[in-house]
Specification:
GO terms for molecular function: orotidine-5'-phosphate decarboxylase activity. The active site is at 63 (proton donor). There is one protein chain. Helix 4 (68-81) links the parallel strand 3 and strand 4. The protein has one domain (3-229): Alpha-Beta Barrel (TIM Barrel). The protein has 231 residues and is α/β, with parallel strands linked by helices. It is built from 11 helices and 8 strands. Strands 1-2-3-4-5-6-7-8 form an 8-stranded parallel β-barrel, surrounded by 8 helices. It has helices spanning 16-26, 37-43, 46-53, 68-81, 94-104, 123-128, 135-149, 161-168, 195-201, 210-213, 218-229; strands spanning 7-10, 32-35, 57-64, 85-89, 111-115, 153-155, 173-176, 205-208. The protein is 45% helix and 16% strand. Helix 5 (94-104) crosses helix 7 and helix 7 (135-149) packs parallel to helix 8 (161-168).
Length: 231
C-alpha cells in the first residue's frame, strides 16, 4: 500500500470551519480522514458527505456500543453517508459485531472495525473495571472475538500490532491510533509507538492527529509522517 493511503488524519475539532481549513491546507496530500464523536456531534453528518464528495475516504469513529438493532441502524446510516470504515466496541460482544457486519454487507465499500482496548487504558485501568488480564492479552482476546464475528479488522495500539498481524493474517485491517513521531508527546495515549514501528509491525493504517492538524504547515507535517513510514 502506498504510504499516503496508510495515513488517516484525525479531524478532532469542534467546528466545521477549523476542519475545512485543515482539509484545504492538506489538499491532495491526504486522502483519508477520521471523523469522531466530537466533530460529528458539533457539525452533523453533512460534513462527512462533504468529504466523500471531495473524493476523500472517511473513517467514522463511532465506537458503537449498543443493542444489536441500534448498532445495525447506525452502520447502515454510515454506509449511506459513503464512509469507508466504521467502528464498533468489541467489548459489547459478538452479537453487536455480527449485527454491524451484517448491516455493512449492503455497502461494498464499508469496513467494520472492532475497537479492542483504547490506547489510553493501562493494565490498572482494566483492573478497575474487573478485567484482570493485562492489556495485551485482553486485546488479543477481543481481536479473536471480532475476527470470529466477521469484522474486517481491529483498532489497537501500535504495541499490539505485531501479535495481531500474526493472529489475524495478512488480509485484516489493523488501524493504529496512539502513534507519535520521535520527540513528540504521546498526549493521553498510554500505549504508543512511532508510525514507522506500527507499519513495520504490520499495521495497515496509522491515525495521526495534532502532529499534523496543529502544525504550522500541516502539509509538511503530513509529509514527515509519510517519510517516517516509507520503506
Amino acid at each position: 500500500m502506498e504510504p499516503s493511503s496508510q495515513i488517516i488524519v484525525a479531524l478532532d475539532c469542534d467546528n466545521r470551519a477549523t476542519a475545512e481549513d485543515i482539509v484545504a491546507r492538506l489538499g491532495d496530500e491526504c486522502r483519508f480522514y477520521k471523523v469522531g464523536l466530537e466533530l460529528l456531534t458539533a457539525v452533523g453528518p453533512r460534513f462527512v458527505e462533504h468529504l466523500v464528495a471531495q473524493g476523500k475516504e472517511v473513517f467514522l469513529d463511532l465506537k458503537l456500543f449498543e443493542i444489536p438493532n441500534s448498532v445495525a441502524g447506525a452502520v447502515r446510516a454510515a454506509g449511506t453517508l459513503g464512509v469507508s470504515m466504521v467502528t464498533v466496541h468489541s467489548m459489547g460482544g459478538a452479537g453487536i459485531m455480527r449485527a454491524a457486519v451484517d448491516a455493512a454487507a449492503g455497502f461494498p465499500g464499508l469496513r467494520v472495525l472492532a475497537l479492542t482496548v483504547v490506547t489510553s487504558m493501562t493494565d490498572a485501568d482494566l483492573a478497575d473495571i474487573g478485567v484482570d488480564d493485562p492489556a495485551q492479552q485482553q486485546v488479543l482476546r477481543l481481536a479473536r472475538l471480532a475476527d470470529k464475528a466477521g469484522c474486517h479488522g481491529v483498532i489497537a495500539s501500535p504495541q499490539d500490532v505485531e501479535t495481531l498481524r500474526s493472529e489475524l493474517g495478512a488480509d485484516a485491517l489493523i488501524v493504529t491510533p496512539g502513534v507519535a513521531l520521535p520527540g513528540e508527546s504521546p498526549a493521553e495515549h498510554a500505549r504508543t509507538d512511532s508510525p514507522r514501528a506500527a507499519i513495520a509491525g504490520g499495521a495497515s493504517h496509522v491515525v495521526v492527529g495534532r502532529a499534523v492538524t496543529r502544525a504550522t504547515d500541516p502539509a509538511a507535517a503530513f509529509r514527515a509522517v509519510r517519510a517516517d513510514i516509507a520503506p
